[in-house]
Q: What sequence folds into this?
């Protein structure tokens, strides 16, 4: 017997199989996108540190040209190697927003202020960054260094060219 006018209705919606296929596709996309994004962020933070190191080196070179040493602020202080010590104007990288690196300068091995080593240390491993800083640790490159001779370095195990690229 046939019922007139009554149509068989199929339940609408997603089947469990369709839902599982969608979840698998999203998981594959996330497994590709998240590591790429993390690497992009790390490269950006490293670029800010490199830029800050180069700016600080330029600042120190201007002081050396003007006063005759890297570590003091006047000619007389440079000649006496005492007096008002030079401080870096921007000791955080990036200069705006949450700091990821802290910059320090060392004059070790130079009793006349004729050499320096700049170091950009990730805030997560420095312990001296201000409150609100990004607890960033760079497991690949570690701390980046730059000397007065332009010698670039890093404390991590990654290749130097990778740490100082772009």
A:
């Amino acid at each position: 017997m046939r019922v007139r006018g009554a149509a068989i209705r199929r339940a609408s919606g997603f089947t469990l199989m369709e839902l599982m296929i969608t979840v698998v596709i999203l998981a594959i996309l996330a497994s590709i996108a998240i590591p790429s994004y993390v690497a992009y962020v790390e490269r950006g933070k490293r670029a800010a540190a490199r830029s800050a190191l180069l700016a600080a080196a330029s600042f120190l070179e201007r002081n050396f040209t003007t006063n005759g040493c890297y570590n003091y602020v006047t000619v007389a202080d440079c000649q006496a190697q005492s007096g008002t010590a030079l401080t870096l104007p921007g000791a955080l990288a990036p200069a705006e927003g949450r700091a990821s690196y802290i910059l320090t300068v060392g004059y070790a091995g130079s009793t006349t202020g004729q050499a320096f080593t700049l170091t950009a240390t990730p805030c997560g491993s420095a312990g001296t960054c201000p409150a609100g800083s990004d607890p960033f640790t760079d497991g690949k490159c570690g701390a980046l260094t730059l000397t007065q001779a332009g010698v670039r370095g890093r404390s991590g195990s990654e290749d130097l060219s990778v740490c100082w690229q772009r």
